[in-house]
Write a structure and sequence with these properties.
It is built from 7 helices and no strands. The chain is mainly alpha-helical. The protein has one domain: Cd81 Antigen, Extracellular Domain, Chain: A (Orthogonal Bundle), CATH 1.10.1450. The radius of gyration is 25 Å and the shape is rod-shaped. The chain starts with a helix and ends in a 6-residue tail after the last helix.
């Protein structure tokens, strides 16, 4: 049991160290994947498009760096900026979303990349605290399992 807990503890520790060391690569990959999701955005039930819509609605953002990122997409030439960027769904017409100057007043202008990364970084302390607490419980479990094993070997059970 102590060995199993030690293995799990080491896996979690390695994952945390790798995540910390490669955090800049994670950001870069996230930005490139978000750019790809914008480029391939469509209104079908594509999970990447749904993810973009969810991020934009939840964080009140639009595009990667800002709302004008949509201008370089195929979706923009057909339909304009997606409705998930609108500040108010009632006040967004398709004509407004096709014109960037009008859309600036009706959509969120901040990009999603900065908001997502800053949200992740602000929540990292909570994640680190929870992870540290779990690691402490694992270490206590490892120590108690070793003590129990030592006790069992020192005091052999008597046959009845």
């Amino acid at each position: 049991y102590a060995m199993l807990l030690s293995l799990i503890f080491l896996i979690v520790l390695v994952a945390a160290v790798v995540g910390f060391v490669f955090r800049h690569e994670i950001k870069t990959n996230f930005e490139s994947n978000l750019n790809l999701a914008l480029r391939d955005y469509n209104v079908t039930a594509d999970r990447h498009s749904e993810a973009v819509d969810t991020i934009q609605r939840t964080l009140h953002c639009c595009g990667v760096q800002n709302y004008s990122d949509w201008e370089r997409t195929e979706y923009f030439t057909e339909r304009g900026i997606p409705r998930s960027c609108c500040k108010s769904q009632d006040d967004c017409s398709e004509e407004d979303l096709k014109d960037l100057s009008k859309a600036k007043l009706k959509v969120f202008v901040d990009g999603c990349f900065f908001l997502v990364t800053s949200t992740m970084e602000s929540k990292m302390s909570v994640v680190a605290g929870i992870s540290f607490g779990i690691a402490c419980f694992q270490l206590v479990g490892i120590i108690l399992a070793c003590c129990l094993s030592q006790y069992i070997t020192n005091n052999q059970y008597e046959m009845v």
